[in-house]
Write a structure and sequence with these properties.
With about 425 residues, the chain is of the alpha/beta class. It starts with a helix and ends in a 25-residue tail after the last helix. Helix content is about 20%, strand content about 40%. The strands form 4 sheets. The protein has a 17-stranded parallel beta sheet that branches. It has a 5-stranded parallel beta sheet with strand order 5-7-9-11-13, with no helix packed on it. It has a two-stranded parallel ribbon with strand order 15-17.
């Protein structure tokens, strides 16, 4: 006999077994894949799988054969990862999710055809990572993103909109020209008007402007640079760095590039301070103490009026810097308490190339070197031939002279043999015979 309870359980079991997990909603607007991800091979898959979805419980993976933009028009939440990799596809051109508000991860790996990511309503994400190795410009619009564990962009960025970003554990922007010595090309204007806190921040590349008016605290490292190596930094475009609210950098503050202005009026303490300019900079900071301070490049003047303690201070000035190393060394050697290490050196300038005529006279051409080599070989060969001829003549002379033939010379031992029957050879000239 069936009770209402048993009938209800049977109904739920039949419903669960008949439901497909490849896009059919278990709740209104909710879609789940059979496994952990939806594998998308064409825009038609997007239309068929997500037509009635607003929430995706799982990830999205773009597969080989996909071409054109990935558009998710109605999706507001994705509890998983959107992954686009060159290992699977190189035909997708952009990702557009105009209504997306929450996302697990966005991972884009070296897809040359990708040019744009637009998620204007996205407010929360765990990780956003885009590595673009192609020499083509890309743009990012995440204007509503407030918090993320990690935000990283690597490529020829023409624009990045992170206007609402408040905090991130790690923020990395490797922008245009980060691996080039030339100063020409696309420059990035970077504005983070609400950004206040991070564990580490690294901004690298050809940056025309950086604005972070509310940044107050960096747990570990804050780094600005124009190239992977400071010596490769061009002198353009010039940039001025202003961090009016920054009060704390736990481990390292590094600002090196075509700096012409630097203002950090509230920072008093950090372990390592690195300041370098390839354009010409006067440094004036209210720093009270630091473990190490390193200056590099075209630094014309250094003013640290509030400094009370530093263990190591150094300067590597460019050849055109107005800074005098003798004055620098005297000042910081006499500083109290005395630093354990004070260094100053100037890099040599790049010598001017000689005119073409001078180069021609100083360095012989390949043809001349070849001719000289052949001539030297001929002379050596002739000398060896003449030496061999002289040796032969001397041997012939000694053999033909008074005292016998050459065999007597070659077999002479200079003593009598005990055997009286043994043949006795006359001595070679010019010696006389031994007297018994």
């Amino acid at each position: 006999m069936f009770t209402p309870f048993l009938l209800w359980n049977a109904f739920l079991i039949i419903l669960a077994q008949s439901s497909r997990w490849d896009g059919i909603t278990m709740r209104p607007g909710e879609c789940r894949p059979e496994g952990k991800i939806f594998k998308i091979t064409s825009p038609d898959d997007v239309a068929s799988l997500f037509a009635d979805c607003t929430k995706i419980i799982g990830g999205i993976q773009i597969e080989a054969g996909y071409s054109g933009p990935l558009i998710l028009p109605n999706i507001t939440r994705i509890k998983g990862t959107i992954e686009v990799s060159h290992r699977r596809t190189n035909g997708i051109t952009s990702i557009e999710a105009p209504e997306l508000e929450e996302l697990g991860d966005l991972i884009i790996l070296n897809v040359d055809s990708m040019t744009r990511v637009s998620m204007p309503k996205l407010s929360s994400a765990y990780e956003v990572f885009w590595d673009h190795s192609a020499n083509t410009t890309i743009s990012v619009d995440l204007r509503s993103l407030r918090d993320a564990i990690s935000v990283s962009f690597h490529g020829e960025l023409s624009s990045v909109n992170l206007d609402s970003l408040v905090s991130a554990n790690r923020l990395t922007i490797d922008g245009p020209g980060r691996d080039q010595k030339e100063g020409a090309g696309v420059s990035l204007d970077l504005s983070l008007p609400e950004f206040k806190w991070a564990s580490s921040v690294s901004i690298l590349g050809r940056i025309s402007r950086i604005s972070m008016p509310k940044l107050s605290s960096i747990v570990k490292q804050l780094s600005f640079g124009c190239a992977s190596r400071f010596v490769d930094c061009p002198s353009k475009p010039e940039i001025s760095l202003d961090l009016p609210q920054l009060t704390y950098v736990g481990e390292e503050l590094s600002a090196r590039g075509p700096l012409t202005g630097l203002s950090i009026p509230l920072l008093q303490d950090t372990q390592l301070l690195k300041i370098g300019s390839s354009a010409g900079l006067n440094v004036s900071l209210p720093l009270v103490q630091a473990d190490q301070i390193r200056f590099d490049g075209c630094i014309d003047d250094i003013n640290l009026p509030s400094l009370e303690k530093v263990r190591h201070i150094s300067m590597k000035a460019s050849h055109d810097s107005n800074l005098n190393c003798d004055v620098f060394l005297q000042k910081w050697t006499n500083f109290q308490p005395s630093p354990s290490r004070v260094e100053c050196a100037k890099r040599p300038g790049i010598p001017e190339p000689l005119p073409d005529t001078e180069l021609t006279r100083t360095f012989p051409g390949i043809g001349s070197l070849l001719l000289m080599s052949i001539l030297i070989l001929v002379i050596i060969r002739a000398c060896r031939s003449r030496g061999s001829s002289l040796d032969k003549d001397e041997v012939e002379y000694e053999g033909e002279g008074e005292g016998g033939d050459i065999s007597a010379f070659l077999n002479y031992t200079g003593r009598e043999d005990d055997n009286e029957d043994a043949p006795k050879y006359p001595p070679p000239p010019p010696y006389s015979a031994r007297q018994e």
